[in-house]
């Protein structure tokens, strides 16, 4: 069992919601936390409440940025113990009107970016002899969420990928966990052609 105090934890989607709450909680527990998200101002607001934060403005849809955030974490703290793949894009669309570019954009942010970041982090973790990947999934892909086709399809892919690396790395020093939260209210706005979507 890893000691949280002094551990280096990189959290994506850390500007609000689960990512923000996790960053603040790990900081209170004595971890050194790197926070990644697109909204720098939100990350800096969180950082002002923390002891040893690292702010990493990152667009996960860009693989190079996803890899760079991992490298910057290691350069700053000297290691990476835990990567929490929490960041995600939510694009609202009727299933019969969903555009291929919306699906591709959702998959780039919600799947391709996390895979790139994880593969980079694992290189560092193997050198250390330990590491933990935590993927934040969604039960939405199993139950179906109206108007959320791009999101739930990408989260189904995340689940499949997570189960695959759990199997591949089962007997190694790399631990892989999957977290299925319930409904989370966040101030991260969904991208919607229907106008603002109330989070209720």
Can you describe what's shown?
The strands form 2 sheets. Strands 3-2-1-4-6-7 form a 6-stranded parallel beta sheet, sandwiched between helices. It starts with 7 loop residues before the first strand and ends in an 8-residue tail after the last strand. The protein is α/β, with parallel strands linked by helices. It has helices spanning 17-28, 40-47, 63-77, 100-128, 140-143, 149-168; strands at 8-12, 32-37, 53-57, 82-85, 91-92, 131-136, 174-179, 191-192. The longest helix has 29 residues, at 100-128.
Protein topology:
Blueprint: E1 8-12, H1 17-28, E2 32-37, H2 40-47, E3 53-57, H3 63-77, E4 82-85, E5 91-92, H4 100-128, E6 131-136, H5 140-143, H6 149-168, E7 174-179, E8 191-192
Parallel strand pairs: 1-2, 1-4, 2-3, 4-6, 5-8, 6-7
Helix pairs in contact: 3-4, 4-6
Task: List the defining traits of the structure above.
200 residues, alpha/beta, six-stranded parallel beta sheet, two-stranded parallel ribbon
What is the overall pLDDT average?
Answer: 91
Widest beta sheet: strand line-up:
3-2-1-4-6-7
SSE string, helices as H and strands as E: EHEHEHEEHEHHEE
Overall helicity: 40-55%
Query: Strand-residue fraction?
Result: 15-25%
Q: Biggest β-sheet: count, sense, barrel?
A: 6 strands, parallel
């Amino acid at each position: 069992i890893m000691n949280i105090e002094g551990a280096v934890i990189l959290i994506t989607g850390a500007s609000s919601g689960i990512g923000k709450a996790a960053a603040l909680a790990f900081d209170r527990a004595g971890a050194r936390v790197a926070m990644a998200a697109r909204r720098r101002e939100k990350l800096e607001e969180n950082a002002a409440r923390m002891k040893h934060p690292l702010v990493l403005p990152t667009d996960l849809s860009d693989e190079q940025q996803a890899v760079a955030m991992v490298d910057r974490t290691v350069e700053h703290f000297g290691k990476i113990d835990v990567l929490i793949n929490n960041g995600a894009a939510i694009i609202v669309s009727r299933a019969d009107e969903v555009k291929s570019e919306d699906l591709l954009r959702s998959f780039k942010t919600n799947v391709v970016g996390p895979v790139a970041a994880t593969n980079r982090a694992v290189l560092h973790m193997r050198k250390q002899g330990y590491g933990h990947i935590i993927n934040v999934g969604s039960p939405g892909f199993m139950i179906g969420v109206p108007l959320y086709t791009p999101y739930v399809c990408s989260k189904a892919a995340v689940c499949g990928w997570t189960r695959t690396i759990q199997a591949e790395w089962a007997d190694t020093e790399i631990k892989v966990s999957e977290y299925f939260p319930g409904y989370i209210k966040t101030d991260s706005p969904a991208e919607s052609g229907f106008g603002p979507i109330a989070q209720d």
